[in-house]
């Protein structure tokens, strides 16, 4: 009897643990309070992509950079103060799309005032951006509330950089509760969008002090990039992350890695570093050859990323404007 009792307690605590680990977010969170939410967001993302196809990539990246820093709480959108996330190294002169989020938030407020968080708007917007760029669709989990703190110092510590070695990138994902499948599948986001010369020019002339370019960069792509990004040129010039199909969300990112055509060092090391052999290389090969599996894994990993430390219940607030906390 005593034994059965402790088993019961063990079972209950496992259940609590299970519920704690799983998010409390739901797909139908706004069904009654904002029935047209998905239509309103979709129309605005469509407009933004019609205006500039690259915006799909930029909107996707905003959700990633929001979720990794203090959870998916809209903190990347906050203005004001000198240590905000927008000003942190990985974001400054780099993340974009804030005006599009402002427009979406205004349309959502016009449809249903005061109920939809900026954090949830980022999650829906990222899904629509991927889908409208040719990628997979998934049902977005909702019910996040907005945070009141934007921490630039933290952003600089937890966001991966293109200069990180593979073990650092993996541990930054692990610290966020994500695993190796998530690292490789989500890196596939680099099938769309652009990267600036300043973030890969270390590979082009004198890689790691060797006096030569990165040997894991295809030679014809190397000469293209050397002309695009000359030494002492404009570091803000951009190159496509997937030069084969720039704005199309497909699995060509992984085919590129097999052919030494990753743009960033952090892309190519998933396939080419010594460490990759025992961790990420096999997944790169699989996705390069199996677009359906990449799409399914990407969708699942986006849901897992969207579940990072959400604020629910009475935690946080529903911001009136995405750029400032409610007074
Ligand atoms: C694995 C670690 C990652 C690193 C080191 C990394 C790094 C970068 C860098 C350096 C850029 C170019 C930024 C610039 O030129 O200013 C970039 C762009 C981008 N990243 Fe990542 N990233 C990573 C993972 C992710 C993830 C998980 C996502 C989304 C799920 C993502 C989505 C994007 C997109 C869509 C762009 C293009 C943005 C645009 O064109 O505006 N990245 N990333
Ligand atoms: C919420 O709306 C979606 C889409 O219209 C529908 O599929 C779902 O059944 C609804 N859920 C509830 C609980 O009403
Ligand atoms: C911001 O993050 C840093 C680094 O993790 C931490 O030391 C600091 O306490 C945080 N600041 C706030 C206001 O939360
Ligand atoms: C990562 O987590 C997912 C979901 O739990 C799981 O399906 C997948 O196999 C895991 N990947 C690795 C490499 O452990
Ligand atoms: C490459 O960089 C190293 C270390 O920074 C330096 O010592 C070397 O002179 C450089 N080589 C060339 C060819 O610029
Ligand atoms: C990129 O542009 C910004 C804004 O104009 C500027 O402040 C920054 O110095 C530029 N960065 C590089 C690497 O040229
Ligand atoms: C892709 O799959 C086909 C058939 O399943 C196989 O013959 C081929 O070697 C695979 N290619 C790669 C790069 O894994």
From TrEMBL:
Organism (species): Arachis duranensis (Wild peanut)
Residue positions binding heme b: 190
GO BP of this protein: hydrogen peroxide catabolic process; response to oxidative stress
GO cellular component: extracellular region
Signal peptide: 1-23
Annotated positions binding Ca(2+) 1: 66, 69, 71, 73, 75, 85
Note describing how the cofactor binds: Binds 2 calcium ions per subunit. Binds 1 heme b (iron(II)-protoporphyrin IX) group per subunit.
Protein name: Peroxidase
Binding site residues for Ca(2+) 2: 191, 242, 250
Disulfide bond positions: 34-112, 67-72, 118-322, 197-229
Annotated family: Belongs to the peroxidase family. Ascorbate peroxidase subfamily.
PANTHER family: PEROXIDASE, PEROXIDASE 72-RELATED
Domain Plant heme peroxidase family profile: from-to ranges: 24-326
């Amino acid at each position: 009897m005593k034994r059965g009792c402790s088993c019961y307690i063990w079972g209950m605590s496992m259940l609590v643990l299970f519920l704690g680990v799983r998010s409390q977010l739901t797909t139908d969170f706004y069904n009654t309070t904002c029935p047209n939410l998905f239509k309103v967001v979709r129309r605005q993302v469509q407009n933004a992509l019609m205006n500039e196809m690259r915006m799909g990539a930029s909107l996707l990246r905003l959700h990633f950079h929001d979720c990794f820093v203090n959870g998916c709480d809209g903190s990347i959108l906050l203005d004001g103060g000198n240590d905000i996330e927008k000003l942190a190294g990985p974001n400054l002169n780099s993340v974009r799309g804030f005006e599009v989020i402002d427009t979406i938030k205004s349309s959502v407020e016009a449809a249903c005032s005061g109920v939809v968080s900026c954090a949830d708007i980022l999650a829906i917007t990222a899904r629509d951006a991927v889908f409208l760029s040719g990628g997979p669709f998934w049902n977005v989990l909702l019910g996040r509330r907005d945070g009141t703190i934007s921490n630039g110092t933290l952003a600089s510590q937890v966001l991966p950089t293109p200069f990180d070695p593979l073990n650092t990138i993996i541990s930054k994902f692990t610290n966020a509760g994500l695993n190796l499948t998530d690292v490789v599948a989500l890196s596939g986001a680099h099938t769309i969008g652009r990267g600036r010369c300043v973030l890969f020019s270390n590979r082009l002339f004198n890689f790691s002090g060797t006096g030569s370019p990165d040997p894991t960069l295809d030679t014809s792509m190397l000469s293209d990039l050397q002309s695009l990004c000359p030494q002492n040129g404009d570091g803000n010039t951009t190159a496509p992350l997937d030069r084969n199909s720039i704005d199309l969300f497909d699995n060509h990112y992984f085919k590129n890695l097999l052919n030494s055509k990753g743009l960033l060092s952090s892309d190519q090391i998933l396939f080419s570093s010594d460490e990759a052999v025992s961790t990420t290389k096999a997944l790169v090969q699989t996705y390069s050859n199996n677009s359906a599996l990449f799409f399914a894994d990407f969708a699942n990993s986006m849901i897992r990323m969207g579940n990072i430390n959400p604020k629910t219940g009475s935690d946080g607030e529903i911001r009136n404007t995405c750029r400032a906390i409610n007074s």
